[in-house]
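[recover] target loaded
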């Protein structure tokens, strides 16, 4: 690939049986193992914004729109986190990438978990942000979380994703950065996802359960949690890290559920360092970044 960080390569990956997945490659002038970014629920790959740009200053970065989002084809009849992981592999295959560092957040982290389990030889280093080991939670806090998200789907179509934006952003961020909140809402509304696709993706996250398989992950893994994550808290992610043999857990200060929106430059720098320096265990499990 001959692209530079300022001139991304874009294209479409055909899917067996019909359909296409839209992708983008940034930082193509860089060599080494690329970083694959996997989206959370809602929004297109355009929303990676300054997080992706910071990574692309040092790495080749591959991002894509999951089926049902952005410029990709409609979501299949049944969506699961394992199916999303296989779509991720299709993107890597089409680009001739035999091995990648993988970053996933929220639903994207669930997908990245299965990618590391289904194709361990393809994942060099794994970064899981705002990710639980299983989607459905039987705790009172988990039930409240699911009800808050479900309430967004009852809103008029043009408000669903904006509601989701407000659910994932911390109150502290919304109060301190109203202009950034409006910018994010405009990006989301620029390439809206249908209610049906959002529902399918949300159900995939709800039914996700890799808890019993975590011990099989062999890639060195960095698990990141936002200090002010009102959706997951931090304990679910601490437990995720505890189940992965070669993992380290860190808390990102002053951030809510979506670290790439609230702390994009800090998070990108941390991910870049983990993927680029060969460090395996920067902190003991349970440590935090401040």
């Amino acid at each position: 690939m001959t692209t530079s960080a300022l001139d991304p390569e874009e294209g479409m990956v055909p899917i067996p049986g019909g359909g296409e997945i839209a992708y983008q490659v940034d930082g193509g002038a860089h060599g080494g193992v690329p970083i694959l970014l996997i989206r959370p629920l809602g929004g297109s790959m355009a929303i990676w914004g300054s997080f992706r740009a910071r990574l692309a200053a040092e790495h080749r970065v591959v991002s894509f729109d999951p089926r049902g989002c952005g410029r990709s084809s409609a979501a299949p009849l049944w969506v699961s986190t394992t199916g999303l992981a296989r779509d991720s592999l299709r993107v890597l295959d089409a680009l001739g990438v035999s091995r990648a560092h993988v970053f996933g957040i929220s639903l994207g982290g669930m997908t990245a978990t299965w990618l590391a389990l289904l194709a361990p030889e393809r994942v060099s280093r794994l970064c899981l942000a705002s990710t639980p080991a299983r989607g459905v939670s039987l705790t009172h806090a988990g039930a409240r979380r699911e009800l808050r998200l479900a309430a967004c789907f009852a809103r008029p179509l043009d408000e669903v994703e904006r509601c989701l934006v407000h659910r994932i952003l911390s109150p502290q961020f919304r109060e301190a950065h109203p202009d950034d909140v409006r910018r994010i809402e405009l990006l989301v509304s620029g390439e809206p996802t249908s209610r049906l696709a959002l529902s399918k993706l949300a159900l995939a996250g709800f039914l996700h359960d890799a808890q019993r398989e975590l011990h099989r992950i062999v890639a060195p893994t960095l698990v990141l949690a936002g200090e002010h994550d009102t959706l997951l808290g931090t304990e679910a992610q601490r437990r995720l890290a505890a189940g992965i043999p070669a993992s380290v857990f860190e808390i990102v200060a002053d951030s809510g559920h979506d670290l790439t929106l609230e702390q994009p430059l800090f998070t990108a720098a941390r991910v870049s360092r983990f993927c680029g320096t060969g460090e395996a265990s920067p902190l003991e499990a349970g440590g935090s970044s401040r």
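[recover] notes: The CA atoms of residues 99 and 122 lie 4 Å apart.
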